[in-house]
Amino acid sequence: MTLIIILVVVALVIACIAIYNNLVKLRNNRENAFANIDVQLKQRHDLIPQLVATVKGYAQHEKELLERVTQARAAAMGATTINDKIQAENALSSALAGLKVSVEAYPDLKANQNFLQLQTEISDIENKIAATRRYFNTATRELNNAVQTFPSNIFANMFGFHKEPMFEIPQEDRATIEKAPEIKF
Predict the structure, then answer these.
(1) Main-chain phi, psi angles of 83, to 5 degrees
(2) Centroid of chain to Cα 170
(3) How many degrees, rounded to 5, is the angle at CA 160 between CA 136 and CA 15?
(4) Buried b (16+ CB within 10 A) or exposed e, 67-81
(5) How big is the CA angle at 60 (ends 59 and 62), to the nearest 5 degrees?
(6) Minimal CA–CA distance to 134: which of 48, 26, 142?
(7) For a designed S-S bond to 139, which of 13, 33, 155, 170 qualifies (C-beta 3.0 to 4.6 A apart)?
(8) Alpha helices in the chain (DSSP H)
(9) Burial 35-51 (b: 16+ CB within 10 A, else e)
(10) At a CB cut-off of 8 Å and minimum separation 6, what does 34 contact?
(11) Over the Cα atoms of the chain, what is R_g?
């Protein structure tokens, strides 16, 4: 009889240890999931400004080049005297030569590629953040299930485990989040 009591007590102790260890594992898994979100957010905060600055810089170069050609063309068309026409046509030739060199070096004028690359990088980072948030919410749900279900809820209460919040958009931010983001150059 005492052997049976000892075996039952040992089984209960082992079950308690297993439940406690599972709660710790679930809590650590949730914390790790949030650390993964931090990694992705850090990448977003580091990469996006660099990409935007790169695209802005190249777009400015192309904008200036195309503006010079447009201004030179307008001046050539508006010139009335021979000297003005010569000067305007020389300016237009110079601007067109610059455009030709740029087109030869960059046949499809790289800003288009830079904007597409920026769009791809932003989309990739946002997808990674969304995936890590989903993983975090899954880890949180598993912990919350363990904290709230019997018999682990008894041990959760004894050892200070409690229901944790999901990664959700605050109600006051929902209207802002539902709008498409604006990227300004």
Answers:
(1) -65, -40
(2) 19
(3) 90
(4) ebbeebbebbeebee
(5) 65
(6) 142
(7) 33
(8) 2-78, 82-105, 111-148, 152-158, 174-178
(9) ebbeebeeebeeebeeb
(10) 136, 167
(11) 32
Would you tell me how many other CB atoms lie within 10 Å of the CB of residue 11? 10
Distance of CA 89 to CAs 5, 63, 64, 97, Å? 106, 21, 18, 12
CA–CA distances in Å: residue 24 to residues 7, 17, 109? 26, 11, 56
Task: Tell the residue number behind the tokens 């026409």, with chain if given.
Answer: 85
pLDDT per position in the chain (185 positions), as tens? 899 999 999 999 999 999 999 999 999 999 999 888 888 888 877 776 777 677 677 777 777 777 787 887 788 788 887 777 777 777 766 776 666 656 555 555 555 676 677 778 878 888 888 898 899 999 999 999 999 999 999 989 999 999 998 887 777 666 665 666 666 65
If we measure between CA atoms, which residue out of 170, 138, 132, 178 comes closest to residue 124? 132
Tokens 């995936």 belong to: 131
